């Protein structure tokens, strides 16, 4: 699925080295190293996350390594603030995998992931093995996690993940070793299908792009609630995920929609708010 090659068309008949991937879906540049990460997206087998060294002058790519994404249709990558964990979001089976990153080289750890969580209704993809036709006909028959964004306001490890299948924005707190604890969710109106989320650079506001009804939800963000959530869960996230995932990094399935201990928001009259707070629409 991954191989090095040279692109044709360079001056003198040479080529710029590139890395060829099967259905590359998402790219992420490391903020301080000349490293680029990519994911492969497919529904028939587990995807891959690839680390590549980039020559800053020529743009040439050299393969560092590739690891399993621990899920299918790997569509989004998120690097934590400490740059020691890369979160891979898998759409097809609603799995979120925390992959270790070498701080010096940017290469991905090739042993078991730090944590793998799956939304409860994501198990349908494993049990029923649905195909593309079923997916297009019933977009919300099972859970579909899509993007993962760290809030920019507190400097704390609050990670938000859109779930198109559940009409939710999920709130996780990430531990120092990469463990994840789900601590809340914002329930959007049924049938909207949230896909992408961005935070306003200065206002405490988040915007969610909803794919199924072509709308944008505007969510109020409570900074105090974010701080409380991180303070309560950061120290236990690593232990909780390790206890469930074990040494081999097997998947931890979240028991139910209320596994986070309650919703941080209300679906009445609009979307709930990440970290608690008011409604938008």
Describe this structure in words.
The chain has 281 residues and is mainly beta. The protein has a domain at 70-253: Methylamine Dehydrogenase, Chain H (7 Propeller). Helix content is 12%, strand content 38%. The chain contains three helices and 18 strands. The strands form five sheets. Strands 7-8-9-10-18 form a five-stranded mixed β-sheet. A four-stranded antiparallel β-sheet has the order 3-4-5-6, with no helix packed on it. A four-stranded antiparallel β-sheet has the order 11-12-13-14. Strand 5 and strand 6 form a beta hairpin. The longest helix is centred in the last third of the chain and has 23 residues, at 223-245. InterPro entries: Cycloisomerase_2, Haem_d1_sf, Lactonase_7-beta_prop, WD40/YVTN_repeat-like_dom_sf. Belongs to the cycloisomerase 2 family. Residues 255-281 are annotated as: Disordered. Pfam families: Lactonase. Residues 262-281 have a biased composition (Gly residues).
Topology:
Layout: E1 2-7, E2 16-21, E3 24-29, E4 35-40, E5 48-54, E6 61-68, E7 74-79, E8 85-90, E9 95-100, E10 115-118, H1 123-128, H2 132-137, E11 145-150, E12 158-163, E13 168-174, E14 180-187, E15 194-199, E16 205-210, E17 215-220, H3 223-245, E18 252-253
Parallel strand pairs: 10-18
Antiparallel strand pairs: 1-2, 3-4, 4-5, 5-6, 7-8, 8-9, 9-10, 11-12, 12-13, 13-14, 15-16, 16-17
GO molecular function: 6-phosphogluconolactonase activity
Pfam families: Lactonase (PF10282)
Family: Belongs to the cycloisomerase 2 family.
């Amino acid at each position: 699925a991954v191989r090095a090659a040279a692109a044709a068309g360079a001056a003198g008949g040479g080529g710029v080295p590139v890395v060829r991937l099967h259905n590359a879906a998402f790219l992420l540049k490391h903020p301080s190293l000349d490293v680029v990460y990519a994911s492969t997206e497919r529904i028939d087998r587990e995807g891959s996350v690839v680390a590549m060294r980039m020559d800053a002058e020529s743009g040439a790519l050299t393969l560092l390594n590739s690891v399993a994404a621990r899920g299918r249709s790997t569509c989004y990558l998120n690097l934590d603030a400490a740059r020691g964990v890369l979160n891979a979001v898998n759409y097809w089976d609603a799995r979120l995998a925390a992959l270790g990153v070498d701080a010096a080289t940017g290469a991905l750890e090739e042993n078991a992931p730090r944590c793998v969580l799956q939304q409860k209704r994501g198990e349908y993809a494993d049990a029923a093995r649905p195909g593309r036709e079923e997916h297009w006909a019933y977009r919300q028959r099972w859970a579909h996690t899509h993007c993962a964004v760290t809030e920019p306001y507190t400097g704390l490890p609050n990670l938000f993940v859109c779930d198109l299948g559940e009409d939710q924005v999920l709130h996780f707190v990430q531990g120092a070793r990469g463990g994840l604890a789900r601590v809340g969710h914002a329930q959007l109106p049924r049938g909207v299908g949230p896909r992408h989320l961005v935070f306003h650079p200065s206002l405490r506001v988040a915007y969610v792009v909803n794919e199924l009804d072509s709308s944008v939800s505007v969510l109020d963000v409570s900074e105090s609630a974010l701080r409380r959530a991180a303070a309560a869960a950061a120290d236990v996230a690593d232990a909780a995920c390790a206890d469930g995932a074990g040494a081999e990094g097997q998947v931890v399935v979240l028991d139910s929609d209320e596994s986070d201990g309650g919703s941080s928001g209300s679906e009445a009259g609009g979307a709930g708010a990440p970290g608690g707070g008011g409604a938008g629409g």
